[in-house]
Amino acid sequence: MQIPFATIERLAIYVRCLRHLKEQGIKKISSFEMAQHTRTTPEQVRKDLSYFGKFGKTGEGYDVENLLKKLEKILRTKRKWNVAIIGAGSLGTALSKYRGFKEVGYDVKAMFDIDPEKINKKINGIPVYHIEKFSEITEKEDIEIAIVAVPVEAVSDVEEVIVKSKIKGILNFVPVTLNLKTRRRIVVLDVDLTQKLYIISYLIKNKWEE
Amino acid sequence: MQIPFATIERLAIYVRCLRHLKEQGIKKISSFEMAQHTRTTPEQVRKDLSYFGKFGKTGEGYDVENLLKKLEKILRTKRKWNVAIIGAGSLGTALSKYRGFKEVGYDVKAMFDIDPEKINKKINGIPVYHIEKFSEITEKEDIEIAIVAVPVEAVSDVEEVIVKSKIKGILNFVPVTLNLKTRRRIVVLDVDLTQKLYIISYLIKNKWEE
Fold first, then answer.
1. Which residues constitute the signal peptide according to the record (chains A, B) (predicted)?
2. How much is the mean pLDDT over chain B?
3. Given B9, B83, B201, which is nearest A76 (Cβ)?
4. B186, B200, B204: best mutation site toward chain A, by most A Cβ within 10 Å?
5. For each of chain A's 210 residues, which pLDDT tens digit applies?
6. A199: distance to nearest CA of chain B, Å?
7. Which domains does chain B have, with CATH numbers?
8. Which residues of chain A make contact with B9, given a CB cutoff of 8 A?
9. Of A89, A145, A192, the CB nearest to B16
């Protein structure tokens, strides 16, 4: 069965919400409350969860811990993922310090750059390698996901390096669409920060100015 | 008419795609090609655009420049927005250097922190103020959007400051849901980087491991 992409996106938000509720000691949650916390509708919550089986009993709500466990399993089967960051500039450095990644099982094992001043040093405890060592290091360290945070001008060089490696998934922060020859085998997700500001502008306009 | 949130999200992606096509000198694009570039379906492209009027003629495709102009207008009516960044740590600093923002009309006018070593200095040419000056400076500089990039521990203090200000929209990078008392009047969009990695893991698993 083909699960809609938007459902997968929301599952990740449900996980975050449930983890927060669990920390607060909350045991049960209704689809109505869940929708409020995650800015969707109770119908959507029920529909999203229905793809994966039957959760909770009508009128009783969901068991927070149990639902969290199941969704975490659906999203990543509790396994750990090793991650590389390509680009040791300010964004790459900020991402290497992002505590959230490690907390949920994503371990940044290596960073890559071309600046001789950065190579063979450590940033936030993470070794920085020359990009020409990308295939070698990612294989050795069993890295499957790469975060791309390089300047636009460097994208085509980075594409070449990625295509030759065994990387399976890419989180792309560069505001261009990556042109990977073996793209159908590599999962690419774009993080376009500008897009988020567009959406806020639209929502502000439609809330405040009409 | 209520436009679905997912449509607004895709419009922002269409804008990015069209801008890229325009740069390459491409004049026409079909909904089929547009869907390929933006990872959706031709039906979805047509449906999304249909909310805003009639674009293009059947069999002729869309005029890239014209469609871009209209979508940009829908999303932000070509106006400029002044932005503040709360938190002058590594993420806030990386975001202040993000060139994409200014290129599309978002101008970071001020940063806020509590670290005496940072206050009254400039980061990337942007003045850093003490957070207690938030209302004063954002009003003076006509700032309507705030980007929140502080540690989790600082969130409740920041919420208080925002609620007292005239800020209309927030882009939140902290992995907790903001609890704004006047939330219904403030547009909040969460950027959860962990969520993106979850989605990649899910897609990798379902492409590679099943």
1. none
2. 86
3. B201
4. B200
5. 677 777 888 888 888 889 888 888 999 999 888 888 777 788 889 999 988 877 766 677 899 999 999 888 888 766 789 999 999 998 899 899 887 788 778 999 999 999 999 999 999 899 999 999 999 999 999 999 999 999 888 998 999 999 999 999 999 998 777 777 655 578 888 887 888 888 888 888 776 554
6. 7
7. 5-76 (1.10.10.10), 81-194 (3.40.50.720)
8. 195, 199
9. A192
B90 carries a ligand binding annotation? yes
* 3-class secondary structure, B2: coil
Distance from CA of A132 to the nearest CA of B (A): 25
Residue of A nearest to B202 (CA): A75
pLDDT of residue B170: 93
Cα B155–chain centre separation: 20
Highest mean pLDDT among A185-199, B48-62, B139-153, B183-197: B139-153
